[in-house]
Amino acid sequence: MDTNAFFEQAPDHFHGDPAHTEPIDPWWDELKADVTGFTSSNELAMLNLAAKLLPEDEAYLEIGTFKGRSMCATVRGNESKTFYAMENFLEFGMAGIEARTELMQNLEKYAVDADVRLLEGDCFKLMADPKLIDKPVGVYFYDGEHTFVAHFLSLAVVEPLLADEALILVDDATWPVVHRAHQKYLAKNPEWTIVEKWDAKVDNDPMWANGLHALKFVRTEPSKLTTSHELLRKYQVHVQSRINRLAWKLGAKFPRVMKTIERIVLAGSRAVK
Ligand SMILES: C[S@@+](CC[C@H](N)C(=O)[O-])C[C@H]1O[C@@H](n2cnc3c(N)ncnc32)[C@H](O)[C@@H]1O
Hints:
Radius of gyration: 18 Å
Number of domains: 1
Structural class: alpha/beta
Bound molecules: S-adenosylmethionine
Oligomer: single chain
Strand content: 15-25%
CATH superfamily: Vaccinia Virus protein VP39
Order of helices and strands: HHHEHEHEHEHEHEEHH
CATH architecture: 3-Layer(aba) Sandwich
Number of strands: 7
Helix content: 40-55%
Number of helices: 10
Strand order of the largest sheet: 3-2-1-4-5-7-6
C-alpha cells in the first residue's frame, strides 16, 4: 500500500483541511443517516479513500463492524478489492442474531457486489491464525474494544499479517487510553509511525466522532509476536473476553448500575479533553 498517496490525496476529498472541514461528497451523510453506527462522515470518506488506494493483491481488514456503517462506506466504488471484517457481536448489548441480521441487510444493500468476508469471533483469536486472511493486509481499520490492552494488542497481533507497507486507521484515537497504548507499542517498534491525527474537539464530535489517527507501518525485518505479547493475547482471549461478556450481560440486566460503574471506571481513559 502506497501510504504516501493516501496522505497526499486525503485533502482532495475535503472542502479544506480535513481536520476542520467536511468531505466534499454528501453521500457519506446519507449513508450515516441510513445505517446505524458510530463512524462520522469524515471518517467514512477517509476509509473509502484508503480502500481505493489498496492494491488488488492486498486485503483490507476491519475490526469492529457492528451494523456495517464503516464497511458499507469502505467498499463503495472499490468492489474489486478484498475486504475482511471481524466482529464478535458482543458490545452494546447486541443480541447476536439481531445485530447480525441488520449487518447482513446493510451489506446486501450497500455491498452486494463487494467481496466482504465476515469472520465472526474474537479478533484477537482470529488474527493469530496466519492462514485466515489470504493476502497481506494493506489497510487495517481498528474500531473494536477500546481498552489499553486491546489497543496495544490491536497493533502487536496484526503486525505479522500486514503488508510490507501498510496504512493503519484507528478510531476513537483521541481518547487517552489509545494514546497510551500507541505510545507504549511504538516506543519499541520503530517500523510504526503516527502520521496524522484527526482529533475530536468534543465527545462525539460531528466531524471526527472520537478521533481518527492514521499510522504507517514499514517492515524492515520479519514480524513476529513476542512471547510477552503472546501471553497478553492469551490473557485477552481467555480471561478478559469472559469478563467483557459478563459485563455486557450485567449491563443488560442492571443498566443504570453498570452505566454508573462504567462512567467512574472509564472517565479518565475515554474522555475527549
Ligand atoms: C464501535 S463498534 C464498531 C462501529 C462500526 N465500525 C461503525 O462504523 O459503526 C465496535 C464493535 O467492535 C466489536 N468488538 C469488540 N471487541 C471485539 C473483539 N474482541 N473481536 C471482534 N469484535 C469486537 C463490538 O461487538 C462492536 O460491534
